[in-house]
Request: fold
Amino acid sequence: MGIADECADTAPRADTLKKSPETEPVFTESARLTAQAMAVFWGGIAESVAQAFRAFSNELKPENAAGVGFATGFVDGVLAGNASFFQEMAKTSRSILEDSRASRTEAARGAEIDYDRLARLVAAELRRKQVPDDSQV
Reply:
């Protein structure tokens, strides 16, 4: 028996890798919104870093560095990169904040209480409890 045969014998069978409905995670609306916010956040970080490197390399282009020198161009590049990074992160943060506020507003609208229905249910429950139960007499 070769190594390939041994690996084939110990490999999990395809039917054992299928998830049953009982093991599937149930995501609440809150978890979905959190996951969405985190995806936007990490995407914003990636975009911010990309913008920072673009700004940095723009300052180190030969035509820029030739005029001010490499050392000055390097410092200007770091400063321009930092500025671009934080500007892009500010956009991302504002976007997450706006989405968060919008979702809270939607959730608050969905949580309205029907006081008339609640009063009818309470009254019906009180009437039910006031009716004497023959089994207790």
Observations:
- The radius of gyration is 31 Å.
- The chain has a mean pLDDT of 80.
